[in-house]
Amino acid sequence: MNPSPEPRPARLTVGVVGAGRVGPALAASLQLAGHRPVAVSGVSDASLRRAAELLPGVPVVPPAQVLERAELVLLTVPDDALPGLVEGLAETGAVRPGQILVHTSGRYGVGVLDPARRVGALPLALHPAMTFTGTSVDVQRLAGCSFGVTAPEELRLAAEALVIEMGGEPEWIAEDARPLYHAALALGANHLVTLVAQSMELLREAGVAAPDRMLGPLLGAALDNALRSGDAALTGPVARGDAGTVAAHVAELRKHAPGTVAGYLAMARSTADRALAHGLLKPELAEDLLGVLAAGPAGEGRDAEGPEGDGSR
Question: Are the C-beta atoms of residues 132 and 22 closer than 8 Å to each other?
Answer without folding.
Answer: yes
